[in-house]
Amino acid sequence: MAKKFGENRMKSTKAKRFWRIQGECWRRMVTPYMMYLFMSMILLATQAISIVWLRIMLGTLCILIGAAFNAHLAYNTGVLHYDAYLTGNIHRRNLEMGIESGGDHRPEREYAVWKGFYIGFLVGIPVILFAGLACIPGVLGEGFGRFFLIMFAGFAIVPVSWIYGGFEHAPSGVFAYSMLMVILPIVVTGLFYMLGAYVEKRKKKVIEERKEALENAKNAPKEYREQTEEQKRKTMLSKKKKK
Q: Model pTM?
């Protein structure tokens, strides 16, 4: 639905803000999930290697690369959301003073610690969905669940299959353990989201300190001249007293 012209999102209802936050978090989970999906395809290709240790090593490398992409994207999201948070603070102060502002500001994009972990959880939704489907007894549900889990969330199920020496030897119930891999995107996204916000906060603080130091440097000569004039006046008064 198109945004209304001139709509001030700072004054939106709790329901609207809730759904907008959901939309923002779901939007932010797409690219990290695509990175895991891409690396999962490469991961599946490496499982054709007959040498076990090499297969596991390359598979682990693929998962770590997917997590690295996830970390980079979460870091950038943390930076963007922290900037939005600072902008939101300015608009909120203006509203308290009765000044209308924030028409183009999107509060749903503001930083909050829980958002990083929530986005990571959303990245793992396909794993939970397909793993749950794979655990349903019956050829249809179980078969489709296994297929989709392997094809679209390989990073979660392949490490579990290593324990049993391959998918063909793994019992049906073991697919439920792939849900534990959801912890990976949750932890990576949450931590690097906070890291991005923390680094941005430090940058803003350094900029403010430099501005303050520059202002002090500009004012220093004036203060120095005022002090010098005062010293001259006191010296003149002292000389007059001596006479």
A: 0.82
